[in-house]
Design brief:
InterPro entries: DUF6445 (IPR045617)
Protein name: 2OG-Fe(II) oxygenase
Order of helices and strands: EEHEHEEEHEEEE
Low-confidence stretches: 1-6
Strand content: 25-35%
Pfam families: DUF6445
Strand order of the largest sheet: 1-2-8-5-10-4-3
Distance between the termini: 37 Å
CATH class: Mainly Beta
Number of strands: 10
CATH topology: Jelly Rolls
Organism: Shewanella nanhaiensis
Number of helices: 3
Structural class: alpha+beta
Radius of gyration: 18 Å
């Protein structure tokens, strides 16, 4: 392969990457794991280290900073994997995939600075047609991703129908636990949530799951979170919506 094809401005998906399908929890949710997603993952890390700088978005609850990923990343992601997502999750073939977000993401908020909502498993959207893609671009032991079950309701995903009841009850429970007095990232089962599946992080591994699943990054109390994308918990996060 020529050097220009492996330049820092090229995004090259691995044609030999083999997705593995897992089935998770009582709700039998499909979860895809794809190792060796790109042929040039180191080039993507170098891109993340170049300007522009990462920035925080006060409109969401991500515990860190983000910046836009290369445009051809999300274009190729959809080209290569939208059909697999559609077939794995039973999406109506008349619906077309659209990328809502594709961004380098750097988890860097210290535990003591977390807001209560950032200390619990969360969902990204109640839509059953939206999917999250998390692409790990770090080598350090900084935690993968886990899916959860809300113990009281036994909900593993939050749909539009479940949201009013779940939101009200979780707010009551979180307030009762006084989470702000002992700030910490979610990392394993707790009195409110049961961890039902974990994916270990691996450099250049990607996972795909429904955005309405309850999930959280596995970040331990001794994780060395940093604002340096070359050494920190760098992921490339995408949301794909079929409509």
């Amino acid at each position: 392969m020529t050097a220009d094809l492996l330049s820092d401005r090229s995004v090259i998906f691995n044609p030999d990457a083999k997705p593995v399908l897992h089935t998770v929890g009582e709700e039998r949710t499909p979860l895809l794991v794809i190792d060796d997603l790109l042929l040039n993952p180191d080039a993507m890390v170098r891109q993340a280290c170049q300007p522009p700088e990462f920035s925080a978005n006060n409109q969401d609850f991500y515990p860190g900073k983000r910046k836009a990923a290369p445009l051809d990343y999300d274009e190729q992601l959809i080209q290569r994997y939208s059909a697999l997502i559609s077939s794995s999750y039973g999406i109506n073939q008349s619906k077309q995939p659209n990328t809502l977000l594709s961004a380098f993401s750097l988890t860097m908020t210290k535990a003591e600075a977390l807001r209560p909502i950032q200390m619990l498993p969360h969902f990204d959207s109640p839509s059953s047609d939206q999917f999250a893609v998390v692409h790990y671009l770090f080598n350090a032991p900084l935690g993968g991703t886990s899916l959860y079950r809300h113990r009281e309701s036994r909900f593993e995903s939050i749909t539009h129908e479940r949201l009013p009841l779940y939101g009200k009850r979780l707010k009551q429970q979180a307030y009762g636990m006084q989470l702000h007095q002992n700030p910490a990232y979610t990392n394993g089962s707790s009195p409110l949530f049961e961890q039902i599946h974990s994916v270990e992080p691996k450099f250049n591994r990607a996972i795909i799951y429904p955005s309405n699943c309850l999930h959280s990054a596995d970040i331990s109390a001794d994780s060395k979170l940093t604002d340096n994308p070359a050494t920190g918990r760098l992921t490339l996060n995408s949301f794909i919506l079929f409509k």
